[in-house]
Structure formats: structure tokens, C-alpha cells
Amino acid sequence: MTLPEWVEKLNQFCQRYDLEAEYLAEILNDPKVIPMIRGKSFEFTVQKLISEILPEKYRVFNPRLNAQTALQDVDFAIINRETGKQYSLECKLASKGSFRIDKKSKQPYLKSKSKVYALKNFR
What we know:
Elements: H1 3-16, H2 24-28, H3 34-53, E1 58-61, E2 76-80, E3 86-89, E4 91-101, E5 108-116, E6 120-121
Antiparallel strand pairs: 1-2, 2-3, 3-6, 4-5
């Protein structure tokens, strides 16, 4: 994707969600938002790597579920094109509660772990 295409997609995103583009950098740098962005980036990275490792008979994709529906959290799914068997994977980049601001230095601290949880049958 070219830079002008990326900027256009970003503008469309801001319009769709009624966001002021001029504040987007501040929003993305907010300590409450950074862990979610890192987590989503990790999901896409793992999805890409799994896609490159698995043979062509597997389709790897992000099902884009709404987390507010109380369904199982599925970061990405794998379907065996030959058998139709489906799997789901959940990725965890950091431990719950691992982000904090150091009291002395006032610097952000994030204890990180890179882990992909066990493959489970996709429902």
C-alpha cells in the first residue's frame, strides 16, 4: 500500500468513527491504548507467520468477532480446506495487569510475554 493510499484509508477511518484526525497521534500514544494496539499487531504478525508456515490446504483468517457479544475470544481461525475442520487461536502478548508506571522514574513499564495459546476447535 502506498503512503497516499494509507493516508486515505486513515482519513476514511477517522470519518467513519467520528474521530478528529489531528488527535490521532495522541490517542495512539495513550498508555490505555498502547497495549491493545500492540496486542492487535501481535495477532496479525502471528497470523501472517502461521499462514506462511502452513500448507496451502489451510486458510488462516481473522474472523472479526465483536467482543461485546460475549462469544469466545478468537484472534484468528484456521480452516482445513480439504476436511472443513476449523480451529481457533488466541494470542497473548502481555500478562494481565503487567502495564504500570514506575513510581520513581514515572516511566511506563510493560512486562511482556509472547505466547500463542493452544489450538482449540473453532465453534
